């Protein structure tokens, strides 16, 4: 009996950005359809505009339920979300209309996943300013999804993930989980706590175990490098004492729990070692500490995974790219990879123990 491929709902994100183009562009790639049954969530007219722009032979079909989806490279089923006002969202600009369109698509997709009507969701990018302009005061997808799923913000984490390849030689690829995320750099020091570091390390351990091949699960334990906050890991307090007061005690506590942690390690050399295969995952203290390093290793292959949710969610690792939007120049590799990783996570869902 043929195993049914997972049903993955792909949100359009902010329609003023590259989301619709990345979905339509990815639709023609056979790898997308080999791993799952994809469907889009948003207003189908944005997808039709993208099809026309890219001059592709794809029919966009509005459906009423995920059960109606019968996707193929030539047929793109779309669950309509939001109202008709969103069609007036100006392209390549921040607007409340674009923010509301992204919000409506995300909420519908999340609710479908919570109800078990889709197996996973993959999100195209939204603009934080547009989201707030629409009246939804969230720093981004991660926090919005956490609240929708009834999970406190500090119990979830964003992981950027790269599958094994030429730039990443680890057993399961390389994931970077972030202790703090969408906040001003000055606020990181206030929110950096032992418990948040431990929570991120536990989540990184759980997802990395799931990525490891089944044959190795009984013996392989994820190796997790914990980044320092300050240059040179603080030089014994000379450049800051967060390593001594917060990060080192968290690493010790994690080891006592059975986690295979090493750190705090200076991030410049830590990421070099991680890419070479010394670590399966890294715990970064703040957004850019993890993002810059991983995106340099593989910008268009990087995938955003939200850890700690009761649903599976992945995303492209780039933003709305208003400077490129609606010019036929959008990159599709990250969308294909994000959907592939979502399908992969569906296959190991029973091992994802948060």
Structural summary, described in words:
By secondary structure, this protein is an alpha/beta fold. It is 38% helix and 16% strand. It has 2 domains: 199 residues, Isopropylmalate Dehydrogenase; 151 residues, Isopropylmalate Dehydrogenase (3-Layer(aba) Sandwich), CATH 3.40.718.10. It has a 12-stranded mixed beta sheet, sandwiched between helices. The radius of gyration is 20 Å and the shape is globular.
Cross-sheet strand order for the largest sheet: 3-4-2-1-5-12-11-6-7-10-8-9
CATH class of the largest domain: Alpha Beta
- Domain module tally: 2
Radius of gyration: 20 Å
End-to-end CA span: 32 Å
Low-confidence stretches: none
Q: What fraction of the residues are assigned to beta strands by DSSP?
A: 15-25%
CATH architecture label name of the largest domain: 3-Layer(aba) Sandwich
Largest sheet report? 12 strands, mixed
**CATH fold category name of the largest domain:** Isopropylmalate Dehydrogenase
How many DSSP E strands?
12
Instruction: Estimate the helix proportion, in percent.
Output: 25-40%
CATH superfamily of the largest domain: Isopropylmalate Dehydrogenase
Number of helices: 12
Would you tell me the overall average pLDDT? Answer: 94
> Given the C-alpha coordinates, what overall shape results?
globular
Q: What order do the SSEs take from the amino end to the carboxyl end, as H and E? A: EHHEHEEHEHHEEHHEHEHEHEEH
């Amino acid at each position: 009996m043929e195993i049914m491929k997972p049903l993955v709902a792909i949100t359009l994100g902010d329609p003023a950005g590259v989301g619709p183009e990345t979905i339509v562009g990815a639709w023609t790639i056979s790898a997308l359809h080999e791993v799952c049954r994809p469907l889009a969530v948003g207003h189908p007219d944005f997808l039709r505009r993208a099809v026309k722009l890219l001059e592709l032979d794809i029919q966009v079909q509005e459906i009423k339920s995920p059960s109606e989806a019968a996707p193929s490279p030539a047929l793109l089923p779309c669950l309509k979300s939001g109202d008709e006002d969103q069609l007036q969202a100006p392209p390549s600009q921040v607007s409340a209309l674009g923010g509301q369109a992204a919000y409506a698509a995300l909420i519908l997709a999340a609710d479908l996943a919570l109800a078990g009507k889709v197996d996973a969701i993959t999100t195209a990018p939204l603009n934080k300013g547009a989201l707030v302009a629409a009246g939804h005061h969230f720093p981004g997808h991660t926090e919005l999804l956490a609240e929708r799923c009834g999970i406190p913000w500090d119990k979830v984490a964003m992981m950027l993930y790269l599958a094994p390849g030429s730039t990443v030689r680890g057993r399961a690829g390389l994931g970077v989980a972030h202790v703090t995320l969408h906040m001003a750099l000055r606020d990181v020091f206030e929110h950096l706590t032992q418990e948040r570091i431990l929570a991120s390390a536990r989540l990184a351990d759980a997802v990395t175990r799931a990525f490891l091949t089944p044959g190795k699960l009984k013996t392989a334990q994820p190796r997790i490098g914990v980044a320092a906050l300050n240059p040179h890991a603080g030089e014994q307090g000379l450049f800051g004492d967060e390593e001594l007061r917060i990060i080192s005690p968290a690493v010790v506590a994690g080891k006592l729990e059975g986690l295979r942690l090493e750190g705090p390690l200076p991030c410049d050399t830590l990421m070099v070692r991680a890419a070479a295969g010394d670590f399966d995952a890294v715990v970064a203290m703040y957004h850019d500490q993890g993002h810059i390093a991983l995106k340099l290793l593989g910008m268009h292959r990087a995938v955003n995974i939200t850890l700690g949710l009761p649903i599976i969610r992945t995303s492209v690792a780039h933003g709305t790219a208003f400077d490129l939007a609606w010019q036929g120049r959008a990159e599709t590799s990250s969308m294909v990879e994000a959907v592939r990783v979502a399908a992969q996570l569906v296959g190991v869902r029973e091992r994802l123990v948060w």
